[in-house]
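Have a close read of this protein, sequence plus structure tokens, and explain what the tokens say about the fold. Thanks in advance:
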Amino acid sequence: MNLDAELAALAAAGLLRRPASADSCCGPEMILDGRPLLAFASNDYLGLAADPRLVEAAVAAVRRWGVGAGASHFLGGHFRPHQELEEQLAAFVGAERALFFSTGYMANLGVVPALAGRGDVIFADKLNHASLIDAVRLSLAFNHRYPHLDVAVLEGQLAANRAKQRLILTDAVFSMDGDIAPLPELAALAERYAAWLLVDDAHGFGVLGPQGRGTLTHHGLKPGGRILLMGTLGKAAGVAGAFIAGDSTVIEWLTQKTRTAMFTTATPPMLAAVLQESLKLIESADDRRAHLQSLIARLRAGLAPLCARSGWRLPPSSTPIQPLVIGDNHATVALAEALKARGVWAPAIRPPTVPEGQARLRISLSAAHTEAQVDRLLEALAEITR
């Protein structure tokens, strides 16, 4: 492989990516590559990443527990805060038990192969997150992808397949479109066809449902029976990590068989201690969630005339993820750069993160944003369209 040529091809297609370096805390106003920018890029949906209460909890936890776990969970790295956090996470989402992971990516990579292997069958939404796609490949199970949100096609696939072990995989809130999976219908299919249903609630946990308990509770469901929940703790929770929740038996199986939990050094116990404080803040953050919903409505109302004028597309989304679809890679990058020149950062998303021809700005709102900041984004976009 000629790497220089391959990199040149990426550049020609408008697909080169370079991360910006932040010199400030995560928040609406950030210093990126030395420039102050109004940021609409992070998944800090409740604005907790730099919340003083979590900062103080972290300082106290560092003094009590140090900065490292030193070993895997089974070899001395499982501290009291890890155990307490797992118990509190299970109670928070209404499950019998939970298992803590370092990241959501590691959770999915470990759990899927522990539930389905060679000879088994996995059914996955075509727009699932990359971690679920990679997990399916790692499992060596047969893979059937169904069109995005298409429950009828999924049922046909389930009815036509008689494998002993079947697993349905779906994002709860899809990370690039912001739409919500039809979880009640998927849960009914899992029950009807004796399949597991693994719900990746990375972008719904903390935002949707009563007290932010997630997309399952938003639909009146909870982990248990054939339903497993994966939630991440570095987005709305503002810290880091992830968890799987479900019935005690399946969580015990995953504890024994999930390689990404068994064979990695445990997350620092200080993070688990801070996450316990984060759960309290999430539970009491109804005012933040209400403010977030008002910002979503304000942004969408302001984008509608701009889309009509420019030919951009704003797919339906009632979540903080607002995709402004431009289409062409180069045009999307140019729009992102034009915004940056006006002091606003909304990242350009291109294939393979999204399908070909659907490059977009992924505008991500936070409860830490103000109405004036949303208006500033809209004014910058309006100026560019003129």
About this structure: The chain has two domains: 20-46+286-385, 52-283. The chain has a mean pLDDT of 96. The longest strand covers residues 321-327.
